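Collaborator request, handled under Task 6.
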Amino acid sequence: MRFGQLGPPSVFEALDAQGILDHSVPGIDRIDEAMEHPPDAGRARLRGQTIRQAAHTTGRYSCSWEYVIDHETDAYLDMNDPFADRTMWTMPRPFTPTPAIERPRQRRPAPEPAPAAQGPTQHAAEDIRLFSRLLARIRGASQEEPRVSWRDE
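C-alpha cells returned to the collaborator:
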C-alpha cells in the first residue's frame, strides 16, 4: 500500500522522482495563480470571494466543496450549483418539535388463569375416560348388524 502513501517513502514519489510517471494533465498549469485568482464565473468564484471576505474572522465560518457555513447565525451557502452567479445565504428553518400523537391505550384482555395443578392420577383418570369412550365406539360399531337393504323381488 506504499503507492498511495504520502511523502518521500511512497512508491509514487520514488517513481515520479525518476520521471517514470506521466501524470500531468495538459492545460492544467498556473496552479499558484488559480489559488489566488479564481475563475471569473461559477461557484469557484463565489467560494473564493466568500472565503476572502470571511478570512479575517476566526472560527465563525467553515467551508467544504458543497457549503460555507456561518456558525454565528447558522446560515449556509449552498455551493452545489456549478453555474451559480450569486451567493444566496439560507437560514435554516426553525426547529419546531412535532407534537406527540396521543393514541388511546388499547386494553389487553387479562391473561387466562393457569389451569389448576393436576397430579398424575388426575391425568391418568382423564386418559382412561377418553380411552373407554373410544373403545365403546369401536365395540358399538362392530356389534351393530350390517345395514344391508334387501329388495323383495
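The cover message to the collaborator said: "The longest strand covers residues 67-70. The longest helix spans residues 120-143. Please let us know whether this matches your experimental observations."
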